[in-house]
Specification:
Oligomer: heterodimer
Radius of gyration of chain A: 27 Å
Shape of chain B: globular
Strand content of chain A: 15-25%
CATH architecture of chain B: Alpha-Beta Barrel
CATH class of chain B: Alpha Beta
CATH class of the largest domain in chain A: Alpha Beta
Distance between the termini of chain B: 89 Å
Number of domains of chain A: 2
Order of helices and strands of chain B: HEHEHHEHEHEHEHEHEHH
Radius of gyration of chain B: 25 Å
Number of helices of chain A: 10
Number of helices of chain B: 11
Helix content of chain A: 40-55%
Strand order of the largest sheet of chain B: 1-2-3-4-5-6-7-8
Largest sheet of chain A: 6 strands, mixed
CATH superfamily of chain B: Glycosidases
Low-confidence stretches of chain A: none
Shape of chain A: flat
Distance between the termini of chain A: 64 Å
Number of strands of chain A: 14
Number of strands of chain B: 8
Amino acid sequence: MRHWTARACSLLRDCRRWTRQHPRLALAALLVIAAGFAAWRLTRPGAPFGPQDGTWLRVQINGDLYVGIDPSYPPFAEWTPEQIVGIEADLAREIGRRLGVETHILIMGYDSLYDALYTGGVDMLIAGLHPDSTLTHWVYYSQPYYDAGQVLVSPREEPISDMRALDGKTVAVEMASSGDAAAQRWARRLRALVIERYLLPQDAMRAVEEGQAAAALVDTVSARLYLPAHPRLVMAAETTVAEPYVIAMRRGNFRLTAHVEQALKAIKADGTLEGIIAHWLSG
Amino acid sequence: MMRLTRPVQRKALAHLARASGVLLVVSALAALRPAPPRVVLGPPHTVQTVNPTVCVHTRLTDEVDEWKIQRTLQMVREMGAATIVEFFPWPYAERERGSYDWAHAERIIRHAENQGLTVIARLGLVPAWARPPVREKVTTLTYLPAEHFDDFARYVGAFVARYGDRIGGVIIWNEPNLSYEWGDRSPDAVAYTELLRLSYQAAHAADPHIVVFGGALAPTNEPEGSGSGMNEVRFLERMYEAGAAPYFDALAAHTYGFTRSPADPPDAQTINFRRVELLRVVMVRYGDGAKPITITESGWSDDPRWTRAVRPGQRIAYTLEALDMVTAWPWADHLCLWQFRQPSDFHNRRDAYYALVSSDFFAKPIYEAVQAYVRGWENPYAP
């Protein structure tokens, strides 16, 4: 350490000596560095000579925000005769409200979502999308607004929040579901895990209530819909298999993405998001 | 100019040389990559099956790693499906006009042959050079201007010339009766027939025995003139009216059951599995009943949230029932399940719940059930 400090001091002394001997060259080098820094600052996204976020300008001027939604995923998005309703529709409107603009929900099939975003048909997608690493060169994904993954449901008196605690016990799952597949993967890692299959996730959770299994591994939506009427059961705080839902926007819309992230953070922090989710998943 | 005799300058140069050396070593270390897994073809395999009707639509288009291509096709063979449908995008092969790169296609065909699988090649998408410049018009990858139909046909001809004797046929385009698949424009049966005619002629010029599939029509109730699509039965009628009959050897059709049982009777107003029978009626009416229909996409989703999905147990029961049904239809030769596996389950949530195998090669219960059916074993998920 002392050796490297001495070397650094020596280098510094050499530089100072060289600067005194060549003041003009030193000044020129300083000017080049300053010019480079100024060019970098002025051409950054949003700076006077940098790329602009046209979408954010339009959103501000026109006061509108176009959101693509696939209304075939209740309770996230559903098409009623009056309007599109659900968690995602409420979230889209809340984001618009926080940005001070009117949200226009455009309904589209799942397969058309990314094309609509790419061609500028919509400003963002809120449609149960997962972050896709193959699209991140042009798609920006927000922080998650919901985790629809597989979660353990167990008796309140003997709560289980980790699959490892099920070693030597029985887990109930819906036959052939993602929970079934996840339990099969865990069965390979644990010493002994018995998997009991039921036709529906509700049947799996009922089996836990009746003492036939130590826990059920079901999706969070089924669990949230089932639990209010069954207070003897409790859902683990963390999912065993995560399935995050995120908002997708164009990466080039750096102002819009920043404002939406800020709005989403605030919506989460003040409990609005949890209120929306609870409203639709109260059972 | 600096003079090297000065001690300060010599020292500065020494520092510079050391720094350059360190930079060089760091760059060399950063450039180091582990060697990709070595993939060996091994001895050729044959598919063991009691039902050659069973086929799967694979998704190897965006699979970069060769070992994953091999593992996917191994699992198809182990399941007992003898035929696959795979997509060979035009832009992948002809990135620059007139210059073909068959590396990706070659890998897939070679591995499929090695596993004893027959490939039905779906050809489509449009390279950037055949689409309007972005500054003029933003278009999707399915936007093919009429002036480039002959370029696409040339690609079909080149593909067939290379692989014609090693594959089970070529499907010309995908779901041309959907706007999404027709460059976000209203579907146009007359234009599609022209594309089919040019492609058929190019394919048969390259290999007179090649099977050219028309259509790959998607089930939809959208009326003619809709911005989203056109009813596939009407689209097929329009194709015949435009003179398509001589330009396809078999019809490729997609049929999905959604929430309905496969036994649900065909109905013009309902999207269900047996709706494909309505296409058969049109073919017979236009004197084309001798041609088979190949169902190149079908299946049920077990997405727990989608309104058009079923429960996983129902999915297994419906799929096996549908396979029985198609086996008994004399005019249908394959039922290809959508889809076997996709490179990333996060890429498309909708498709993830149609998959038989997860992206990390975990055989889902539906895979085991179909495998038991095709191999003549007992269904482990029988209700």
